[in-house]
Each structure stands twice: as C-alpha cells, then as structure tokens.
C-alpha cells in the first residue's frame, strides 16, 4: 500500500482533466503524474533510497505536489518544512531531524549543513523554476532508525507544535495517510466531489497530505494562490467557477478589506473554510457583514487528520469547529484526568477512531505508548453545546493563571483584533509579582495604520474584565511563528 496510489488512480481516471492551476497555467492529472514519476527517477539517481528522510522546502506549487508523491513513490520519508522559516531555522531543523536530503526551489541556496554530496537541478515542467535535490555527503539517518521507519512503512513525518512547546515529529504511515484522506471524502460531512473547485491559500507544508490529496482523490480542481494577496481572488473565482475557498483567518480579514471584491463576486462559492488557527469572532463578523456568509471551521491535528467539521450557516454556530466526522469519537475530560468524562462542560478534547498516527520520532514513542485506552489527548480545551457542536476555547498549556483565575489568550486576542488598526496579535503570559502571571500582547499593525500603545490598551481594557487586562503591548513588524506557522506564545 503506497500513498502514491492516490495520484496514480486519479491520473488513470481523469488524465485530461485539470488537477492544479497555478500562475495562470493549468496542469492536467496526467501531467502531474508524469512529473511525479520523472522526479522519482531523479531522486533515485541522486541516491535517495527507501527509509531516507527528505525535507521539502517549496512554495505552494504543482512542483510541491509532484515532489511529495515522487518521494513516497521511492519509499523515502517526507518531512514538509514551512517555507517561511528562516534559513538558519531550516538548517537547525535539518540537523535535529538528521535529514538525508533536501528538496527546494532553484531560487533558494543550499541549506543542508555539513558535507554536501551532490546538488542536482531538475525541471519537471517546462518554463518553470527548477527544483534542487541536495543530498548529504553521507547518510545521516542511523541504521536502527531507518529499520524502524521501514518497519512502520512511514510515508511522512509532520511537525506539530503547541504554541509554546518544541515541535514534535508525527510519523504517518502510508496506510494511516490513506485512512485520513478517505475520511475527508466519505460520510455526511464530506463536501469533496468530482466537480468541485478549491481555491487553496493554505501552506502545503501542513495541508498537502490531507486537504489537497483529498481533492485529488475525488478528481477535483485545485487553484493555488498567495494568502497575502487577495486581489486575484475575484478573477480566479469567476474564471474557474470556484466552489470552495480554504484559507487562514488573516486571509479572510484581507478579503473583507479588499475594495475590488464585492458580495456578488463570491455568491457562487458554496463554502468558505478557515483552518490553521482559531477564527476570531471579529473576523467572522466583519466577513458576514460584507458578504452575508459564514466562515466555516474544521478541527484536526497531524496525529489524526480532520475529526470535526462545521458546515452550518447558522449564526448560533459561528466559531464552532462542528461535529465529529470520519468515524471519529470525541469526548471531553479534565486536563488531568485519566479518562474522558463525556460531559457537556468545557474540558480537554479527546479523540478516538481510525487514522490515528503511528507514533512520534523525537523522542521515539509508538502510538500505543501515547494513547490512553485508545484515546488521544489533544491538549486543546473545548466546550460542547446541546446539539453536539464543539468550540475550541484554548490550549491546556496556554491558559494564563492570573491570581488563580484562568484566562484564555484567545479572548484577549479577539478584542485586540477588533481594533481597526490591528492586523495580527498573539497574547501570552509573563511573570508578575502580585498575580503570579499576567497577559502580555505582541501586535502587528495593518500597513499604514498608526496607533499608540496607550490608545490600544485603553481600547482593549475597556472591554476586558479586571483579570484579563493588559499592562502593556509590544508593537512588532512580524508575529513570531512556530515551525508549523502558528503564532508562538512566548516572548
């Protein structure tokens, strides 16, 4: 069983159909398949073998898709790396994970530290930026680790990180990846059909093995666009008949602010989906006020894929991550409990069902060593309403204890984001003598916006209870991110 079968079967069924659209060019399923097969041969020529760990650092593109499928085709273990990381961060990650090789676009310099064996440039599509394969001078994956990876038939290692903790490597076998993808395509909550067209502005590093692969499995069309530039959206939607849009919360804030996009331009889009981080209430409200539509959310982790989906357009369900899908069971339990309690109050989200990960590689822990009676403790705090819809309210480790009162950073972030000058924000705890710890915020202002710290503090604290009040905010040019692109809640 090989994850490559998704692309192979799709190319056999719909060879002449468009699979991907990027930079104004259509790529057919047969072209994508041929490119993946061609790149698989290049990997073999570069000395990449089964069990080698291959880091992939590419922008969203059809090349990224071809590289991933080519790597799993030859039995390599793919490690998708968030391309916005700095070169030094990528090099450190490569060292920590003992990568045997890197694949990156020709626009990037070699970044694999240590002795480099070969650097091979490959063009798999005409008139496109070439790819580079950089192989280490010697294999870095220890033989014992290689044997364990091969015994599990690991296809990918995805990085997962809470907002304060170090990234962990989540091992996913070919069989588990296929289960996770099929779970997205089956059941009453699946929206993926043959004739759907997805406009995707999410990072491939976290969404190729799930969302993108699911649309390929069903023969959909995927448009890849830049999350930081909403201006082309109108033309893409009209030209290609986009039915689904998937992006991070910030993308929807920019859509709202884009004067060149009117409600009628998006009226034929069936679903607007937000993922990657929590959708602020202010963003959902602004989007609804302009376009008259709700932004829907899903919930998933690298360890289990998407397990909750919200397809409701009801205002009362705004912000919910929905109900269980794909045969998963969801329960709530206290963060320090030995088992989920199943109550309707807030508690830690526990997941059980098919498609759970194979284990962690840093440090090495197999799935059965991590699960508790088959349940995965997610570390996310949630509440459930009477209809069975779930809302994520915070992370167990992110809760700020202000004099014994539990404060969720997301509540303060929502208030700060409602200020018209604020584009991005992250709130975290800092030590304080009287209360033990208090909230602190880092704020990125919108381009051209001006706002004094005193003004922003007064705006926020007028809307917050005394235990949630901010003593100071720090203005920054960029919000620090984890290796998965999530805001980092540490100073």
What do you see in this structure?
- With about 500 residues, this protein is an alpha/beta fold.
- Helix content is about 25%, strand content about 30%.
- The chain has 13 helices and 27 strands.
- The relative contact order is 0.09.
- The model has no long low-confidence stretch (mean pLDDT about 90).
Quick rundown:
The protein is an alpha/beta fold.
Characterize the overall form: globular
Total count of helical runs of at least 4 residues: 13
* Coarse structural class: alpha/beta
The major pleated sheet works out as: 9 strands, mixed
Total beta strands: 27
Task: Evaluate the radius of gyration.
Answer: 22 Å
Model regions low in confidence, pLDDT < 50 over at least 5 residues:
none
Q: Estimate what percentage of residues fall within beta strands.
A: 25-35%
Biggest sheet: strands side by side, in what order? Answer: 2-1-11-10-12-13-14-15-16
Q: What integer is the average pLDDT?
A: 88
Distance between the amino and carboxyl termini: 45 Å
| Residue share in helix | 25-40%
Give a quick set of tags describing it.
five-stranded mixed beta sheet; 491 residues; alpha/beta; nine-stranded mixed beta sheet; single chain
């Amino acid at each position: 069983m090989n994850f490559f079968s998704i692309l192979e079967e799709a190319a056999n069924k719909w060879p002449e159909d468009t699979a991907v659209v990027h930079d104004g060019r259509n790529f057919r399923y047969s072209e994508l398949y041929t490119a993946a097969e061609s790149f698989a041969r290049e990997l073999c020529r570069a000395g990449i073998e089964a069990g080698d760990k291959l880091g992939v650092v590419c922008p969203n593109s059809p090349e990224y898709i071809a590289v991933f499928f080519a790597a799993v085709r030859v039995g390599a273990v793919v490690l998708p790396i968030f391309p916005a990381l700095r070169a030094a961060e990528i090099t450190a990650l490569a060292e920590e994970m003992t990568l045997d090789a890197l694949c990156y676009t020709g626009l990037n310099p070699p970044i694999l530290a240590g002795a480099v064996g070969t650097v091979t440039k490959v063009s798999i599509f005409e008139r496109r930026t070439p790819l580079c394969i950089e192989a280490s001078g010697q294999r870095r994956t220890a033989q014992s680790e290689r044997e364990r990876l091969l015994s599990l038939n690991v296809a990918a290692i995805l990085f997962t990180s809470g907002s304060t903790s170090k990234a962990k490597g989540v091992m996913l076998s070919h069989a588990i990846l296929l289960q996770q993808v099929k779970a997205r395509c089956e059941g009453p909550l699946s929206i993926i059909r043959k004739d759907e067209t997805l406009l995707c502005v999410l990072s491939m590093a976290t969404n190729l093995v799930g969302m993108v692969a699911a649309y390929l499995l069903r023969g959909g069309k995927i448009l890849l666009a830049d999350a930081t530039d909403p201006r082309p959206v109108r033309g893409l939607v009209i030209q290609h008949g986009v039915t689904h849009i998937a992006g991070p919360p910030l993308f929807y804030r920019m859509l709202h602010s884009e004067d060149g996009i009117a409600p009628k331009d998006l009226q034929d889009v069936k679903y607007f989906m937000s993922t990657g981080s929590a959708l602020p209430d202010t963003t959902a409200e602004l989007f609804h006020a302009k376009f008259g539509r709700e932004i829907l959310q899903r919930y998933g982790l690298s360890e289990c894929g998407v397990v909750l989906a919200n397809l409701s357009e009801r205002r009362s369900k705004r912000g919910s991550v929905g109900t269980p899908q794909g045969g998963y069971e969801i329960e709530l339990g206290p963060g320090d409990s030995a088992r989920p309690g199943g109550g309707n109050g807030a508690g830690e989200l526990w997941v059980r069902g098919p498609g759970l990960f194979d284990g962690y590689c840093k440090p090495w822990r197999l799935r059965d060593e991590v699960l508790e009676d088959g349940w995965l403790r997610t570390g996310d705090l949630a509440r459930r309403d009477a209809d069975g819809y779930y809302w994520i309210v915070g992370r167990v480790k992110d809760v700020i204890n202000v004099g014994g009162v539990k404060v969720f950073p997301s509540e303060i972030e929502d208030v700060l984001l409602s200020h018209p000058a604020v584009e991005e924000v992250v709130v975290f705890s800092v030590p304080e003598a009287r209360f033990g710890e208090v909230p602190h915020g880092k704020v990125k202002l919108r381009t051209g916006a001006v706002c004094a710290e005193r003004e922003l503090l007064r705006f926020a604290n007028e809307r917050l209870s005394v235990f949630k009040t901010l003593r100071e905010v720090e203005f920054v040019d960029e919000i620090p991110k984890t290796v998965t692109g999530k805001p980092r809640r540490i100073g």
